[in-house]
Amino acid sequence: MKPNEKFFIDKVKAGKLIVTVDGDIFTNENGDYRKIGYYTNTGYVRIEKSENLKRYVISVHRLVWLIFKGDIPEDLVINHIDGNKKNNKLTNLELVTNEENYRHGIRTGLTNNVGENNPMSKFTENEILEIRKTYTEGIDVKDISLKYNVSRVTIYDILKGNSYPHLPNKIDMMRKPDRKSNSKYTEDILNNIKILNNAGHSDYEIAKIVGIPRSTIQRYRKNHL
User: Fold this and answer.
1) Domain residue spans in the chain?
2) How confident is the model over 1-42, as pLDDT tens digits?
3) Closest Cα to residue 133, out of 111, 155, 162?
4) Rounded CA gap, 43 and 92, in Å?
5) pTM for the whole thing?
6) Element (H or E) spanning 103, and its range?
7) Tell me, what DSSP letter sits at residue 177?
8) Concatenated DSSP letters for 106-160?
9) If one looks up domain 3-108 in CATH, what number appears?
10) Burial class of residue 187 (count of CB atoms within 10 Å of its CB; 0-12, 13-18, 19+)
């Protein structure tokens, strides 16, 4: 049992705190019953007390379980059955594993780790839509991967919908986009490429001068020069 949990259980045993099966906590420190508790940023209800210059904090759902059901194994957590973190009634609490708790959170909407809400996400949802749009405009996967500093496999997964499947505009990779007309580059840029090429500049030099990827120069040379 954790020190903070023992602290509050001792307070209950001493009659200083009253815990009900409805999930309410009352203090009786001064002989006057008063309901206590506050909401955290994540929506849970907690109580706290200070004693001997030390602060003790506990979530109400854990205290309710400890009082009426006993110890909480270290590999288990308390789950709110109806998905309402404010409903700390004993009948609304159950012991589950962390994985079960996570899956329950997804089902009830308590946990939203989809797309850019996932802390492991490398992209915003707007970037995903831009990547898919850019590919349909004729930009090569290699160029897109260089722009975002990720592997080509990552870009392919985004395009096919293996990643971020909840977003629209997934690409049918069996249908190649039209790469003969590249709307990203103006006629002036294409003419400059042609002039520089005729002047004997290398693909690397043209790419540096014009400011576009070398692979695009190579593709343009193959298709138009």
Assistant:
1) 3-108, 119-180, 187-224
2) 889 999 999 999 999 999 999 999 999 877 778 899 999 888
3) 155
4) 16
5) 0.50
6) helix 98-108
7) -
8) HHHTS---SGGGSTT--S-HHHHHHHHHHHHTT--HHHHHHHHT--HHHHHHHHH
9) 3.90.75.20
10) exposed
